[in-house]
Design goal:
- The structure is a homodimer.
- In chain A, helix 2 runs parallel beside helix 5.
- Chain A has helices at 3-10, 26-49, 54-61, 65-72, 80-89, 94-101.
- Chain A contains six helices and no strands.
- Chain A is mainly alpha-helical.
- The A-B interface holds A 25, 28, 31-32, 35, 60, 79-81, 84-85, 88-89, 93-95, 97-99, 101-102 and B 25, 28, 31-32, 35, 60, 79-81, 84-85, 88-89, 93-95, 97-99, 101-102.
- Chain A binds a DNA duplex through residues 53-55, 58, 62-70, 72-73, 75, 77-79, 81-82.
Chain lengths: 102, 102
DNA sequence: ATATGATATGTCATTTTTGACATAGAGTCA
DNA sequence: TGACTCTATGTCAAAAATGACATATCATAT
């Protein structure tokens, strides 16, 4: 694992395999976190494209503005589930999601 | 929404927008569920390709055999997070995940 | 300057997801 | 037959994610 990337993730509050379990699963953990961050980024772009405020999107999802903000900020407390459901609520298709990944 | 598809999802124990909220958000909900089911399917194939038992995969993930079984069965109690982490643990790349979606 | 609208951040009780466990089915082999 | 391996299914306490709320920050317009 690249120390640099790890450092940058930790700075956002993520726990990236802390010191002792520094091998094996770490790569997958990092891939997972990066995947979520990629979706976060796309979520914000998507929402702005649609000219929606966080509050409006929250209402559609029956969620809350603060949760949307945390999602877009890449907060570790938000699940992939919510990210994906948000993107779908914004009209993203599975094809779109696929493009965000690759 | 196609009644047929809805019926088939409900039969697996999924709650697909029950009767009154039969419009609007339903499509996204269905897309979300189908997405999970697609990953479930791929998970089982992937695991078998790798010649791993559910228990072995569970150990890698620090999860349990029963959870893996539920994932592969498309049980509504499992999150996208766990599905994706499982696929990553099996060596799937983001590109692979993308292909599963599109 | 200050009011207004959007976004960020922290906290917390409630809900959902989790791993663990028990146990049941289903297949194979001696 | 029974022993063995793998998978399915149900339950539940513990852990994680959630929406709601308060409040802070940051523009930008008046």
């Amino acid at each position: 694992m690249k120390s640099l990337k790890k450092r940058s993730l930790e700075s956002k509050g993520w726990k990236v395999g802390s010191a002792r379990e520094f091998l094996n699963l770490s790569d997958e953990e990092v891939a997972y976190v990066e995947l979520k961050l990629a979706l976060s980024k796309n979520l914000q772009e998507y929402r702005r494209e649609k000219k929606l405020t966080q509050e409006e999107l929250a209402r559609r999802l029956k969620s809350s503005q603060s949760r949307i903000a945390k999602m877009e900020a890449g907060d570790p407390s938000v699940s992939l589930d919510l990210l994906v459901r948000s993107l779908l609520a914004l009209g993203a298709s599975r094809k779109h999601l696929a493009q965000m990944l690759s």
